[in-house]
Amino acid sequence: MAHTSNALFEYPRSPVTVEAVYDPVLSRWLWLVKWVLAIPHYVVLLFLWIAFLLVTVIAFFAILFTGAYPRALFTFNVGVLRWSWRVAYYSYGSLGTDRYPPFTLADVPDYPAHLEVARPEQLSRGLVLVKWWLLVLPQLLVVAVFEGGARCVGGLAGLLAFYAGVSLLFTGRYPRGMYDLNVGLHRWTARVVAYAALMTDVYPPFRLDQGPSEP
Description:
Layout: H1 2-8, E1 16-20, H2 34-37, H3 39-66, H4 71-90, E2 113-117, H5 131-135, H6 137-147, H7 155-171, H8 176-196
Antiparallel strand pairs: 1-2
């Protein structure tokens, strides 16, 4: 009976998947110049995030009137989140890889950072009116601590990445516990961003799922 009760109240699985591959061998010094190497990506992402916001506004009205997120718009916004995660993972969001991020919205199977969001067939027309500003507010406050109010760097995640860089410089290794926590913070953030961007009705859990793989 207890098992049945627990199953009834099991939290729905998040449609947002954030994964990475831990690389124990990283350059000691490359992280010092990644801010220069990543500039082309930062420029592209600036325009992509402007487009992301415009697409979200269009999707708002589409969901309000049809109850569905248009597939092409959904695919584009997932691509922006995916691109952002790869850049964050390479640069000062994580410093998790020395492989330069590809310039594409599509998933790159052999790249060590991946993000997916399962597209729902239907979304609530009522929730779309309140979830992006009211319901998500507690989560945004948490994410502001994690990311410092930014998507790629800052906050606790950025601080962990900095300490990881210092560790690389002097020891040549990325502390595994620090890595697991960093990826977990980005995973939480991605769930919140997807919810705020109307891409899912599954409320992000107040739970830190650490490590490179989804639980």
